[in-house]
Amino acid sequence: QYEIYLAGLGGVLPQLPMRFDELERRAEAALSPSLVSYIAGGAGDEFTQRINTSAFEQWGLVPRMLRPTAERDLSVELFGMALPSPLLMSPVGIVGLAAQDGHGDIATARAAAITGIPMIASTLSVDPLEAVAAEMGDTPGLFQLYTPTDRDVAASLVNRAEAAGYKAIVVTVDAWIPGWRPRDLSTSNFPQLRGHCLANYFTDPAFLALLDKTPVDDLSAAVAKWAQLFGNMLTWDDLPWLRSLTDLPMIVKGIGNGEDARRVKDAGFDGIFCSNHGGRQANGGRSAIDTLPEVVEAADGLPVLFDSGIRSGADIVKALALGATAVGIGRPYVYGLALAGAEGIVHVLRSLLAETDLIMAVDGYPTLADLQPNALRRNLFAG
Ligand code: FNR
């Protein structure tokens, strides 16, 4: 931040927005209306999406002065990965299209390589998972699985992810069917967009074996086949089979209450991802941050990842203090991508971490271990 301040004194201002609202506004101006609907939109009247962000305001960090914070340590060990910070890029399907060259998954992987911040690559990527992994450099990657109904295809995707070097599998359970998203519905573009995100299927031997003709020869039949496999409603009975697919650490994403967290733990999974999908799936739910404490309590020591609503370093600090082992962001990095490709993502990630680090410095919390629930109090004004 000193560099930015000093450059500002010399009249040189940052080219990319420093505030989230400006980042969002400029990214939306740069994207097509249908992509704006797809990325920014949420379920219903977007109440849950709104409170995902505003609920952070109910918490305030207790300032603790005169503690030694000249040296801070944000590093964390997660599923055997030594990470520089507790920040991850959450999986965003079709993110590829947000890049000017249409290869946003590759750009996101490049940003991961530059920053050391892991990307969780979505099943619904524009480029195949192997190509995405190849761009990650030394930064470990995670693969997010939307589990197809065909178990051979599911196993094949997991095996490919393992062979490509991904370090963990994140199984998303809250989006086997798309939510009621009026912005997508009114632009009617969601089905069209989906056609662009099947690279992982169209390169998959188990999927191709189910087709009479290759996707090149009959695209609509291949898309129809995919649509048939995609809507797999997993139940608790499927978890032992899922768990048996790999020895890699497995995390279940989309958990929002303590009882479910306990069941995931009991099923032998390695982590719980507390998330409401950024408010995109079901409106009328609780804010994600409100569900975090009971998930952490039930996880009873198992790592808990958190996303949905994080827009600032202050939000990151609060989620960590409420017990998250690490946090993810979705839309913020997509907006960086839309504005300036990998460089835009790097800008967003570094800005968030700089703010996190400065809050820890100013308020007296030099390490992540110092960020405990007692570091937070309710802000009375927020009720
Ligand atoms: C998502 N999310 C998501 N999650 C997932 O597990 N697989 C996916 O393919 C996608 N796709 C996707 C697309 C878009 C456009 C968005 C915005 C989100 C959910 C994502 O991983 C994450 O949970 C939320 O984005 C977090 O909320 P914020 O940070 O966007 O508020």
From TrEMBL:
FMN binds at P91, V92, G93, Q144, T172, S275, D307, S308, G309, I310, R311, G330, R331. Residues 12-381 form the FMN hydroxy acid dehydrogenase domain. PANTHER family: FMN-DEPENDENT ALPHA-HYDROXY ACID DEHYDROGENASE PB1A11.03, S -2-HYDROXY-ACID OXIDASE-RELATED. It comes from the Bacteria. One of its GO terms (molecular function) is FMN binding. Its cofactor is FMN. It comes from Nocardia fluminea. Keywords: Flavoprotein, FMN, Monooxygenase, Oxidoreductase. This is Lactate 2-monooxygenase. Glyoxylate binds at Y38, S122, Y146, R181, K253, H277, R280. InterPro entries: Aldolase_TIM, Alpha-hydoxy_acid_DH_FMN, FMN-dep_DH, FMN_HAD, FMN_hydac_DH_AS.
